[in-house]
Amino acid sequence: MDYELMMNGNVKIGQHAPDFTADTTYGTVSLNDYKGKWLVFFSHPGDFTPVCTTEMIAFAKANPYFEKLNTCLLGLSIDSNPSHLAWMNDIYCMTGIILPFPIVADRNGVIARKYGMISNDVSTTETVRNVFIIDDKGIVRVILVYPLNIGRFIPEILRIIQALQMSDCSNSSTPANWIPGQPVIMPPPRTFPLLQERLDYIHQNNNGMSWYLAFKEPKEDCLREKD
Fold first, then answer.
1. What is the CATH number of domain 3-167?
2. Annotated catalytic residue 222
3. Residues 20, 31 contacting (CB under 8 angstroms)
């Protein structure tokens, strides 16, 4: 673990997600258990709270869509494991929905502080709504932070994962408001001869604005989801 992370809990995009082992509602879990899978690691302020309850139900309903993207869900709060279990059971009794993903019990806040999930200016005892999207190699790719009173938009988290996976697979970028099935942005040329080739390509295919902004259809393999 680097010094800055140890002192500040300052996890950054592009670094390896710091490992941990913790008790959860599905037994002991280590971050390394998810190697080879994408992971949405998210925190919530507390059990038996209204916004968090709607989020847990929404994540549970969306879980099959995450699974198709080779992605697992992992929740966390600083409540105890018995509290998590009682909350899960309450949700099940009231809705019939079983939360299919683990919730980490981080009673001493060690993991939350390591990941910077506690904003002391907001609360010293509750985690804000962080989302860490970690890829199948254990690299932090996206960090989202929501305030205590605003629930997350789960379809956007799914869209971000699809955009990341598409970008990785097709060596491309995604434009503003990109959704799956739309063209992606080609990397800009780095030499003048390639610039001229790109302009010819745009002219022939009518699929760009200038040499630095051209689109392409992704490869068929990049469009396939896991069964």
1. 3.40.30.10
2. no
3. yes
